Amino acid sequence: MSTFDLHAAARRAMLGAGFPIEFAPATLEQAQHPASVDDDGARDLRGLLWSSIDNPDSRDLDQVEVAEAQSDGSVRLMVGIADVDAFAPLGSPLDRAAAERTTTVYTGVENFPMLPRDLSEGATSLWDGQDRLAMVTELHVGPDGNVLESGIYRAWVRSRAKLSYDSVGAWLEGAPLVPEAIAATPGLAAQLRTQDAVSMHLRKVRLSAGALEFDTIEARPVLENGRVVDLAVTPRGHARYLIENFMVAANTAVSGFLQSHSFPSIQRIVRRPARWERIVELARPLGEALPAEPDAVALSGFLTRRKAADPDHFPDLCLSVVKLLGPGEYTVVPAGGDLGEHFGLAVYGYTHSTAPNRRYIDLVTQRLLKAACIDAPCPYSLDELTAIAAHCNERASAAQRVERILRKSAAAVLLHGRIGETFTAIVTGVKAQGTYVRLVAPPVEGRIMHGERGLDVGDRVHVRLTNVDPEQGFIDFERV
Q: What InterPro entries does the record tag this protein with (predicted)?
């Protein structure tokens, strides 16, 4: 068991799901020798105090931010997104490779990029100290957190620092040690405080509208010399919320911009939950009476109260609610059409535009934006956008399957010596093909093979580990 090769397993899972592992020679050639790009009309914003916040090991940096406080208490917030289209134009080998994959796949042991690393970690990555082209969404945010106006344009940017979620989050939450990259950049500490303040204002508005904030447990394998020694849980943290609030604001502004210019768009929709009645059932024993019909404001208030009342078990409740809400999907909206609702974010009109190095929908949206900005014709027909959305939906599901298999393969390696032990678990899925649970500790997912009758999502049960199969990513339990 200690010799099980997770990297080889990741590659098998990718190929099994229909994802290419290698890039074609023409694609690599284009990535390694990017052509000069047209920067006509691009503003010069390199003098602003841009910075990025991402995972410590991320190299495909899509986003930078800067905020300027105004004399009336409002804030001018700018979110810069890498201009990937400038180097991977529609119909090029790079575009065709991205269109086939549609997403970067994160397996926990190896990442499989949507675009070659020579490009996504090079010319289109918003590295600190480098001049980069970006699409900038500018938001004028009032003192109450409402967006008063917005605009979108192309610009040159230069990031001053690459920051990490954990260190910036801890500092914003009161840790005395200032991260080195912040201390080394004059004015950056005050800049980030301004960003944090406007982020909290944006968050307050979304929460009042019914936005749902979840504390879910995301575990990744910890490897030492190729062996799985633990599963590490990624904390949400203050800095992650900051970036999330900015992304929601920017993506919502992009939707409105395209609609105002009579352009179609691909919206990210999370519909009203079909299993709302089960969410109501989970709330009842906790002393909460949710309405009979789906209500985001009521659910948001319930989650906020439960987090305060029982923070230790709040992630378990979040997991159940997330499963019952159901997945999001990409839907094409024609010019002038109904943008639709994102139930979880409590926003009307929400697209994906902030990660064009990592998601194809974002690259497509970037092309729509660039055309709208200069009053050019739409670069896609509705039929083409519909086909892209359908393919991206299918590939997103495939990527999730790959990531789930690798999480379970790593967990199976970790648990192989614990056959027969009993664990506390939360039911996460009840389907025709089986009933699934996630252990409370360690946060491992598996299937109940015996005793699953009568269980439903959100039930807390005791299970015994009966079998593990790292090759297949199987972890089997029986109810006790």
A: NA-bd_OB-fold (IPR012340), RNase_II/R (IPR001900), RNase_II_C_S1 (IPR040596), RNR_Ribonuclease (IPR050180), S1_domain (IPR003029)
Rounded to the nearest 10 degrees, the angle between the axes of helix 188-209 and helix 296-309 is 120
Which domain does 302 fall in, by range?
276-325
Question: Any idea how long the chain is?
Answer: 480
Cα gap 217→315, rounded to integer Å: 6
State residue 280 phi and psi, 5-degree precision. Answer: -60, -40
The total domain count for the chain is 3
Q: Can you say how many angstroms the Cα of residue 364 is from the centroid of all Cα atoms in its chain?
A: 17
Q: Let me know whether 245 and 295 are in one domain.
A: no
pLDDT of residue 230: 84
b/e code 378-392 from CB counts within 10 Å (16+ = b): bbbeeeebbebbeeb
Query: Are 435 and 375 part of one and the same domain?
Result: no
Q: How far is CA 112 from CA 161, 171, 378, 382, 449, in A?
A: 26, 32, 31, 30, 32
Least confident window among 1-5, 49-53, 87-91, 96-100 = 1-5
Say whether 192 sits in a helix, a strand or coil: helix
* Same domain, residue pair 27 and 113: yes
356: pLDDT strictly greater than 80: yes
Say whether both 142 and 172 belong to one domain: yes
CB contact at 8 A, 448 and 437: yes
Is 10 inside any structural domain? no
Contact between 130 and 159 under an 8 Å Cβ cutoff? The reply is yes
Q: Quick check: pTM over 0.85?
A: yes
Q: What percent of the chain has pLDDT over 90?
A: 82
